[in-house]
Design brief:
The structure is a homodimer.
Chain A lengths: L3 E4 L2 E2 L5 H8 L8 E9 L4 E8 L1 H18 L15 E10 L3 H19 L3 E5 L10 H5 L2 H8 L21 E5 L4 E7 L4 H11 L9 E8 L4 E8 L7 H14 L4 E7 L4 H12 L10 H6 L1
Parallel strand pairs in A: 5-7, 6-7
Antiparallel strand pairs in A: 1-4, 1-5, 2-4, 2-5, 3-4, 8-10, 8-11, 9-10
């Protein structure tokens, strides 16, 4: 059975199309590597690439693309709305099929070692690959961004996991790690009161005492005159989508507000929605093996 | 993009393992053909084979297996609980991926023509391939079974679609056609009163004035002391699973009974459950393209 891993590297270039094509090019025309998507954002000055494939093939392509990005991006001249600490800002590996999280972590460390040596790039391991709890969260590592990293990296607790404690002069540093697939799941409320969305977000998210694998903020949808609880579900196998949805419904009642619907942004693993259907229909003893498509894909 | 069709031929042999293996053998070790399952039932004296693959490859394998079944099964000595009219009783083709119903109908007719000529087997086209409305329903065609077919086939309205109007002396006749995937979906009720299950089944099923693509009967689960509405959803793209489920909940209220859960027997297309999740979460503008696995399978 074929192993499939996903990689979603974020590069700090969202404006220069020629450079972007050069960076994306290593993901094209390769056996066992499939470029699913790349989305650039001019305001963020960043491009997010989504690629899937066989682990070794994806690894080689990612290493090649990192090399190109280090060469063509100069962070000394970079500005954008999105925080960034490197030409290659972050490289998450996500186990998709017939591959364990342990294997994904292993793969992330192999890539980390190689790029640190090959391109003189200090690497911080993050998420499931993190070497300590304070490095699990990318925001902690990135705090201070490229400009602040030259000082930060000298502190003993911010010694990189691979490479020497010296920021690459033009490419900065990079975070590499393995994580679960994210699901961007937003629940709309029948109100234009952003305070209500903020309060509900605070209650359902992990840091507010809510669900373990849920990040949430309140967002205004000005066009529609409503607000939403915008969530990142960071492990749908442990914090189910329907659980967040039902909790938001319950919380919304406090404010006399109802749920208007929801949206999923981008890709979602099949199992996250199958699990939701199984819950609402109360299907007993259901197995993913019963999904026709999983039998065909084997 | 690879076309994938499913075929679920039913053969009238459920006891003689040697004969069954001979019949199933053409589905093994072939390129682009995958034997997913075969389930024999001694009481029914019948084996149901599930195979998927590339249309031409599946077609060739099915024709070969039909030939074997005609050779090894003698219906003159056949008895079992399940109604049957042929050594090969029924051969449904089900479009699964990148293939239209029209193409599946076309394929079923090609197979029908070949087996009628090659094996002297009269063929009735049924379901979406039917040449008239009274041939859509398999039960209509099969009425009278093997023993009654010798007379029935002489009636002008029961002239076969392929082959001469003469029943094969040992292999009878066969129904071949294209249909949507069936979903076997059962909803359990918190009561042991079979009358209630029967009444609800009658109300939700098509022939009772209920949902267009729903067949239903009441069934007792004696071990558990409860009853269930046992359904065959014959087109989940038009009659959604959640609709049948919610209707049963509504009907159950009349009898002061609640729904205890449900079950799905055998395989189910991913989309049938994704659609259900999208309904309950109220996801706006969802596209099957957002399912990660569909992007990998392309």
């Amino acid at each position: 059975m074929k192993k499939i891993i996903e990689c979603v590297p974020n590069f700090s270039e969202g404006r220069d199309l020629e450079k972007i094509e050069k960076i994306v090019n290593p993901f094209r025309g390769k056996d066992n590597v499939k470029l699913l998507d790349y989305k650039r954002d001019e305001d963020h000055n960043r491009v997010v690439v989504t690629v899937v494939g066989e682990p070794d093939a994806v690894k080689e392509a990612v290493i090649e693309a990192i090399g190109v990005a280090v060469e063509v991006i100069d962070l000394r001249n970079h500005s954008g709305q999105h925080p960034r600490m490197g030409a290659v800002d972050v490289v998450p590996f996500i186990p998709i099929k017939n591959i364990s999280m342990t294997e994904a972590v292993e793969l992330s460390k192999e890539v980390a070692k190689i790029v640190s040596e090959k391109y003189n790039l200090p690497v911080f391991l993050y998420e499931k690959s993190a070497s300590s709890p304070d490095r699990e969260n990318l925001a902690n590592i990135r705090k201070g961004e490229f400009e602040g990293m030259f000082e930060k990296i000298k502190q003993p607790q911010w010694k990189p996991d691979f490479g020497i404690a010296e920021v690459h002069p033009t490419a900065g540093v990079v975070a590499i790690g393995a994580r679960m697939p994210l699901v961007a799941f937003n629940v709309n409320l029948n109100t234009n009161n952003i305070e209500i969305a903020n309060k509900i977000a605070k209650n359902v998210r992990f840091i507010g005492g809510g669900l373990r694998y849920c990040k949430a903020i309140g967002v205004e949808l000005k066009d529609r005159g409503i607000v939403q609880v915008s969530m990142n579900m960071t492990d749908y196998t442990k914090t189910a989508l329907y659980r967040a949805f039902e909790l938001i419904k319950i919380e919304a009642k406090r404010y006399g507000v109802s749920v208007a619907g929801s949206e999923i942004i981008g890709l979602v693993p099949m199992e996250a929605l199958i699990d939701t259907a199984v819950y609402y229909l109360g299907i007993e003893d259901f197995s993913m093996e019963q999904i026709l498509e999983t039998r065909i894909m084997e």
